[in-house]
Queue: 2 jobs
Job 1
Amino acid sequence: MVPDYNPVDDIRIGEEKKVPIPEKVTETVAEALPSGKRKYILAAVFAAFLGVLIYRTAYRIILEPVQETETEAVVLLEKPTFSLPSGTYSYMPTLTISHSQREEGVIYYTTDGSTPNEDSQIFNGPIKIGEGKTVVRAVFIRSDGMQSEEADGTYQVEFDYPEEPVFSVDSGEYQGSFSVIITAEPDCTIYYTMDGSDPDQNSAVYRSPVVIPSGLTVLRAVSVDEEGGMSGIIEAIYNVQEIVPAEDPVQNTMPAEDVPNS
């Protein structure tokens, strides 16, 4: 026969086996330790805390700035050098860009003020700065991809223009060819054309009087000073009629008739 199972009996038995917890167990560890050891443990804890604090402070003050400085020192190479300082010029200056490691990379530049990069113009020779305001920016990029600081210069070119040249003969209709003398200010070169096109520094240079042939001629000229300043264009239109030399008059003489003898 199996005796009847009563859960209430198990609960009662468990309660009988519980051991009451002594009140001393609830005391802190520090109070349970002897007073001599307690002093050493507190000193060790304080020393450990102080060591951590000193390490963190030293790392922030010493190590972190050193790492940042080393990183900044290798980011950029020295900037390119310009042969001309920024400023205002009364002539068309020529700018040269150089770099101490030129043979190890490429110099890129812009003349419109935009940021230079590998898609910009490559510097291969002197840059002629034209009239007006020009902002040149340049950067050097080494073959390993290392880039320099950016260099820049602002140039304002303002010409003191010479006066227009003067023709010795005004426009008009003429009989027979003739020559035109062109004069200009001292130290100026005169360029001219005879087909109506605009003269420039690639046109014919005036050195002696210009012969105007028969027919229609459009003479145009311009003066250019030593600094590249160019005057306005002067124009004259000549319509020349060819002179036909007059022929000698023909004398019609009748031969004398033989008179018959009477």
Job 2
Amino acid sequence: MQTSFSLAQLADPDVAEADKILRACVHCGFCTATCPTYLLLGDELDSPRGRIYLIKDMLENDRPASEEVVTHIDRCLSCLSCMTTCPSGVHYMHLVDHARAHIEETYRRPIGDRLLRALLAWLMPRPRLFRIPLLFGILAKPFAPLLKGIGLTWLAAMLKLVPGKIPPHPSEQGRVSLAQGERTARVALLTGCVAPVLAPDINAAAVRVLNRHGIEVVSVAGEGCCGSLAHHMGREHEALTMVRANVDAWTAEMDRAGLDAILVTASGCGTTIKDYGFMLRNDPAYAEKAAKVSGLAKDISEYLAAMTLQPVAGHPALNVAYHAACSLAHGQKVVHQPRQMLSDAGFAVQEIPEGHICCGSAGTYNILQPELAGQLRDRKIRNIERIKPDVIAAGNIGCITQIATGTVIPVVHPVELVDWATGGPVPAVLERRISTETPL
């Protein structure tokens, strides 16, 4: 693709990066075949290629984002399936992230949209505050259909995602979980912000598995939200503030006692943390430290698949439908490891038809774009139910929450199954099924 940025524009490192990405695109259109919104809507502007043209025109002309540009960029899930499909290596993720930051700086959204986005960006990274609206949401959940009927689709979508109960919030920061037997490694485990509120059992299972296999686990004091929620809404100042705080916290822990890896159980967070080096590449105070953090970051499945697991007898040989979270499969290119990890633990892994298509979660997408997210969720669940699994495994809390709203099949994180297989407790959603004697 030919571009025509001025030398003055190219002096901006973000514009220079966008120019490099745009020039890599050869207009082939392979990306349209795997883009969820293009599959649903059939509009070229709702495909990666169409969005690339919109972004190019906006940036080259240095103009504020228009309503048309905002509409089509907002519909993008950032599932990054296009990056897996692209034969030319177009780094769409960095391009659309830059476009979102430009939109946030130059476009004035309607007041309702602004308030909703500000609320999500403020509440969700703060676990203790995030619990409060969820508790009210449990009471309001039965009214979701009524709210949808009167046009409050965003509120109905939020209520649909609220779980039936909110587990107690564990206080984990600064906690060290010692290895059983001889210690072979020391790792940090990201506490996260949404997962500890909705599903604290995930990190608890990860800690048990790691400890059981000789790994010491620390939840580092001072870490917070990875920054991805704000980052994907174009709120770069907020996102980078969170990124720098995490880099400082993990760097201090590395200097204090050393870390062999920084492990993440929410793949959306992992994709962002692995990109810290890029995000802070132009900050001389942080560039080197951020690159080191990114180099240590691994998804929990990536780490466990490289180990020799020690399964024990006693759990059923369940058929597991593995849902490949987009942020893991497309964003991190971690594809085979989760399947290998589940297989090594004794489970029969089933492939989901159209497994490369997003479930519609995508961070806050299922709140901000509830209609499209609902269609993608329903499509995903139809494909899962075709293969009749005993359980669904997904490596991202957003996917777990999204899929669980539309099916009675239990949905768990893969590490919960591995924990069970290596001597841990039965995952709670499976225990409930077993206790009611519902056939698995």
